[in-house]
Amino acid sequence: MRQGFIRAAAATPKIRVADPEYNGARITDLMRQAADSHAKIIVFPELCLTGYTCGDLFLQTPLLLKAREQLFAILKATEDLDLLGFLGLPWQQGGKLYNTAAVIHRGRLLGLVPKTNIPNYSEFYEARHFVPGCKKPVWIDWDGEKIPMGTDLLFSCDTMPGLVLAAEICEDVWVPCPPSISHACAGATVIANCSASDETVGKGAYRNSLITGQSARLVCGYLYANAGEGESTQDLVFGGHNIIAENGVSLAVSDRFHTGIIYGDLDLERLASERRRLTTFPSAQSGSEDYVTVSFSLRMEELSLNRFIDPAPFVPQDQGERNKRCEEILSIQAMGLKKRMEHTGSSHAVIGLSGGLDSTLALLVTARTFDLLGLPRDQIHAVTMPCFGTTDRTYHNACTMARKLGASLKEVNIRGSVLSHFNDIGQDPANHDVTYENAQARERTQILMDLANQVNGLVIGTGDMSELALGWATYNGDHMSMYGVNASVPKTLVRHLVRYYADTCREEELQAVLLDVLDTPVSPELLPPEDGVISQKTEDLVGPYELHDFFLYYILRFGYSPARIFRMALHGFGEEYPREIILKWLKVFYRRFFSQQFKRSCLPDGPRVGSVAVSPRGDLRMPSDASSRLWLEEAEALS
Hints:
Blueprint: E1 5-12, H1 20-36, E2 41-43, H2 61-77, E3 84-93, E4 96-105, E5 108-114, E6 138-142, E7 145-149, E8 153-157, E9 164-169, H3 179-185, E10 190-195, H4 203-217, E11 221-226, E12 243-246, E13 249-253, E14 260-267, H5 268-277, H6 284-287, E15 292-296, H7 319-344, E16 349-352, H8 357-373, E17 380-384, H9 392-405, E18 408-411, H10 415-425, H11 434-455, E19 458-461, H12 465-470, E20 483-484, H13 491-504, H14 508-519, H15 538-542, H16 545-558, H17 562-573, H18 579-595, H19 597-600, H20 629-636
Parallel strand pairs: 1-2, 2-3, 8-15, 9-10, 10-11, 16-17, 16-19, 17-18, 19-20
Antiparallel strand pairs: 1-14, 3-4, 4-5, 6-7, 8-9, 11-12, 12-13
């Protein structure tokens, strides 16, 4: 597929023990089924061509010869399939027997990967039949070709940059130092595991944790196919527990005790981006000296994505996990402010309270900080500064909130001082331009700074990361503070933090106010209201914050291109936004993101709470005058 996505499959055939002909037919059927579903990689279980539970039948020459014969039959039957397969079979070589994964593509055997770690404990007695494979590949004869056999094999797709596969077998991933570590260090981005792991109570959860954890540690895709129905139940039961994981996330997991196929679309560009970002991840060139690389080709097809793309990447889907995240973020924010207040010797804080989401969150964080410090909350100075655009709704919410949280409330009506300033600079109050708006924001900041000087306190910044990304802040106005507690919290997450506080607080009136704040349109309230109602709605002007947060996450976290982000947004948001609307706001994001970097280059300090932040001191070291041409030209071409 385009843009680094590729569909992979993990399959468990229903087999018959010691019947390679029957098993080969089932494997062929599943390969055709996977190809019909546009999968380009498929992994089968360990020793699936014979069955894992053959026991001493592995020492029988007829079984070994029939397994090779059926491998040849599978190759002939699938030579028209544009599919790379990994399937398990016993292989006799040099007078010894190996437990191997055969790697096949379009009628050719590309290589054999032997199992490294041969278990011989508890229910396993593989050392009775098999010997460990060698790391350094040797060359064997197969159908007139020389085929590499060894653990250190890489299978590199020359038509899809970034797709490099390697294999390990079952026990290999359970040991302290799995072969997949070396494979990933040598450049493998996808690990295939042909496995036969029996079921015992609790083992399924551990297995899933093991595979997803390995994919995270190696920053790779991991395709795990497990033996299932048809294996001997003389002493063991196999559940066909298949897993497709990517960098710590399960893309697909099969129901146990069923046979069949699962599919997952791997994101190779995401893996490449993550490895590039992690400067401690080894360079492939430094670990591949002893590896043999086998090239193959796949046709790229245009498909719809078969994976979940979260439209709210900053916000966990599960409510329980979301609540934990909210509690953790509030603690990080509060501990950051606590340290700053202790360091500066401040026992007072000053907050401009508008009745909007951001200042509400800042006040909640400050209240928590004062509790941690053992300071009285009345030393939090909440300042409401009504002017031309202030509505009764936000004004009353701000006042009620301050009172219920125990903060001191001060009202400073700035209308007169702003009008006086207009007179000084010759600004017509009827001209509602950017000067009209920004003069109010800067007047408010001046008041907050001076009040902080009066009480020897800190001005607490309220602006969030989404506003900073878009430059939706008045330079030297609400852009400025002495500590910005919300600086790395995106708008979509601000909402959930406030809701979490509302859901967990015991004060009914405070809860009601917080819920009303959540229901209030996001607005700077700098333009006069219409019939007492907010007339200036931010999302009407710069676009929906849920779209911008989506763009922000994938631009900064992974460095994706506009075309890729656009495709992912279309998939993630489904029918919620028409194509032209998503594209419109994507262009707006790029224009504003590049043009407004100068505001982010001089941000006040603030705590980092997640994997994406815009601090110029560590997270976004971007020149303030960089050209946006490359990105905008690509975005324009999507029209």
